[in-house]
Amino acid sequence: MRLTERIRYVGVNDMKTDLFERQWPLPYGVSYNSYLVVGEKVALIDTAAAGFSDELLANIRSEIGDRAVDYLVVNHMEPDHSALQVVIREQYPDCEIVTNAKAASMIEGYHGITDNVKVIKEGESLPLGGVSLQFFMVPMVHWPETMVSWCPEENTLFSGDAFGTFKAVGETINDSKSGTFEEYKDEMTRYYASIVGKYGGPVQAALKKLGGLEIKRICATHGPVWENSIPEVIALYDRLSRYDADHGVCLAFGSMYGNTRQAAMALAEAIRQRGIPCAVHDLTAENYSFALADVFKYDTVIIGSPTYNAGIFPPARLFMQGILDRTVKGRKFMAFGSFTWAAASVKLLNEMAEAAGFEILGEGLTFKQGYTEAKFDAQALAALV
Ligand SMILES: Cc1cc2nc3c(=O)[nH]c(=O)nc-3n(C[C@H](O)[C@H](O)[C@H](O)COP(=O)(O)O)c2cc1C
Ligand SMILES: [Fe+2]
Ligand SMILES: [Fe+2]
Asked: Which domains does the chain have, with CATH numbers?
């Protein structure tokens, strides 16, 4: 697919993997994007995940025919992009790998490749004859070796996982169809929350570093090529990485026998009656990445959990730990849930929220045994939000 005469898309859609990183559901698939930059020399930017070698090689051939790939630029070593380095080397034996020192040692560690590797430094350029690439380190977006490649002649940023999103790409590859950004926004937020969420600081540093570039095209490793929605895409990543959120509630709960669930539904209804958006997630029915996306979207987190073996019900505990792992900042917090003989879940959740520096709204509410409106004053709790 020709993005411009000198920039070609040769990535693949993955519609068969059920879980990305064996953790995150892919209801709309995912793409592993790689690109060719075609000058007098040809550079391939990143590869794809294991299992896509035939497709990647066919895509390359359909763009450049019998010409060779002269350089393989390695921006990021996570295996969703690096798995086919050996395949590329076998197909194009003279192909020189161009990357930074940290990635070079990972290439050796994963693939045993040490020969014909060109190690470049921050700001260095690779001339390709009529077109060039310049490299900028963006450590921890999303691994320590991560860098981006900038093509000044095409004002194109090969941004790695930054600005990436779940959901496979459409036929046009780019966002030329109106509404593309809106179509991807939720999956981009979920991708960010699940995968990049811990690295808000490094994402902010990268945005500052790249702020001076006059970017006309963002070629990320997952999702559409951004040409028409660049301000929106950058604004979303900027907001997410500052942990900035709208006023609203992510209410996530787990419940074994339905009592905490009934309380969750009553509380969500009471919150909505006050005109406050409230997204509800059943942590026993769906992967917690969907709720995590709403933690990044809204300023208030409410978790429902029964007491379980003197602790938090495991799905709720996993979710809360997921929030802490991502060093989410500046949220308001509330917990509730049923118990039978000795309540513990709400107290423990509040302690975790305090450790995260969240503002605790009231003390939350734990109720004994069956749910009733008398035991669970949803209106009073909603008034605290
Ligand atoms: C495996 C298991 C462990 C439990 N551990 C505790 C406990 O340590 N303390 C307590 O008060 N209740 C405990 N309970 C009781 C639950 O908190 C109680 O059944 C609650 O009403 C369940 O809420 P739910 O209907 O939302 O699932 C436990 C229940 C189960 C099934
Ligand atoms: Fe990655
Ligand atoms: Fe990736």
From this structure: 7-241 (3.60.15.10), 248-382 (3.40.50.360)
For 54, 81, 287, the CA distances from 322, given in Å and listed in that order, are 37, 25, 12
Residue 187, pLDDT above cutoff 90: yes
Distance between Cα 81 and ligand 3 center (Å): 6
| Structure confidence by residue, pLDDT tens digits, 337-349 | 999 999 999 999 9
How, if at all, do strands 117-119 and 125-127 pair? unpaired
Nearest ligand to the CA atom of 146: 2
Gap from CA of 341 to ligand 2 centroid (Å):
45
Tell me the three state secondary structure of residue 177: coil
Q: How many helices and strands, by DSSP H and E, does the chain display?
A: 12, 23
Which protein residues are within 6 Å of ligand 1, measured from CB? 255-261, 306-310, 338-343, 369
Which helix (H) or strand (E) is 7 found in, with range? strand 7-9
pLDDT in tens, 255-288: 999 999 999 999 999 999 999 999 999 999 999 9
Q: Are 322 and 291 in contact (CB under 8 A)?
A: no
The 10 Å Cβ neighbour count of residue 283 is 24
102 by Cβ neighbours in 10 Å (0-12 / 13-18 / 19+) ranks as middle
pTM listed for this prediction? 0.95
Please state, in angstroms and rounded to a whole number, the distance separating the CA atoms of residues 34 and 175: 17
Question: 372 — phi, psi (to 5°)?
Answer: -140, 160
Of 187, 237, 181, give the one whose Cα is nearest residue 207: 237
- Upstream peptide bond of 142 is cis (omega within 30 degrees of 0): yes
Both tokens assigned to 221: 């490793």
